[in-house]
Amino acid sequence: MKLQKIVNRLQKLHPKEIDLSLDRIKLLCEKLGNPQDEINCIQVCGTNGKGSTISFLRSILKEANIKCNIYTSPHVKCINERFIYNDEMINDDDLSNLLNEIEETNNGQPLTYFEALTAAFFHGCKKYKQNLVIAEFGLFGRGDAVNILKKNLCNIVTSCSEDHLDWLPKNHRTIERIIFEKTSSLLNSNIVVAKQSSDKITECIKKNISKNSANKYYFKENYNFVLKENDFFYYEDKYGNLKIPRPNLNGQFQIENASTAIATLRILDDIKIKDQHIINGIQKAYNIARLEEIKSGKIKDLVKNNRLILDSSHNPGGAKVLNEYLQTLDCNKHVIIGMMANKDHKKYISYFKNISSLTTIDIPNQPNAISGKELKDKFKDFPNVQYKKNIKDAIQSIPLKENDLLLITGSLYLSGEFFNLN
Question: What is the pTM of this model?
């Protein structure tokens, strides 16, 4: 209760949920002694794959006994997920105390909720200065509160695609503008560019960072992977080759994310990573609600022996890789979907092929979500589409047969609702 009261107060310090400016957080961090200047950080930006790439980094580093502080957003189950210190999620009391310090230092000045959380994370790193920090850029990197570092160890650019277009001027809602926002202010240490969905996007990134003096590492050019056997992939870069068991995370795109994490850690000379750390870490990585197979719980009980997969993809790029995975499965697929209002719903659903049924639902307690009825109307050309109010009603309406798969997808907020129910 104490934590929620502080969160509620912080959410009222600024009339806008998002206000892309760095002035407020710079001023607040200056009052806190600029804790962000004392960290050794790997920063991660992009549209898709950030969370999974961070999960692989974290898992490999844990195998090497290298402690991490990690900042990601948004959360799925609880706000504490955003604050990892010394490889542990912060508890309620410590987070309450940390946010209370931020509130007192800010002294009622205008501040967005995300800026408050970001300042709190940096401030919390003071207790663990020796740890490696991994911090995710949210939304657009150029105006993101995480983007106030003066130095870092590396920038990772994961797969870039169209998302959050409503935050751009109407005549600038293009992939080129998104790439500019995400990469134009990257620091000049090291830049690792992950596999992109097209050569056009890779070339656009290259052009945008061409004047950046950082050491640059590109997928295919400087590191690569090859699939040769069912349960292994072969990673290769200038340091040599590695035969690695496939990750436990579903989808070939996870091998792409794993390779990006490996490439990053192998170029950082001060981080002593051995081959066995990589092999063990890749197998042990876990990422919540990313093609996650749910094997127990109240919702799982409703689908009985059928496979239940939860995935938080919410933009066209995420839909593309999700459906590449679905096409590898020889079964009937039923999809339950809820989304936020500001997404490209029609483009998202256009990637779904050979789906046996599609059920749209409401996402409760999310004023920025599109209603399931509206979503059904947008998907009216999709065969076998229906609307149900919630996850439970949707599942009970689907005639699942033996070996059928049920997928719940469309939003991180829907994933959070799933976990609350399950």
Answer: 0.93
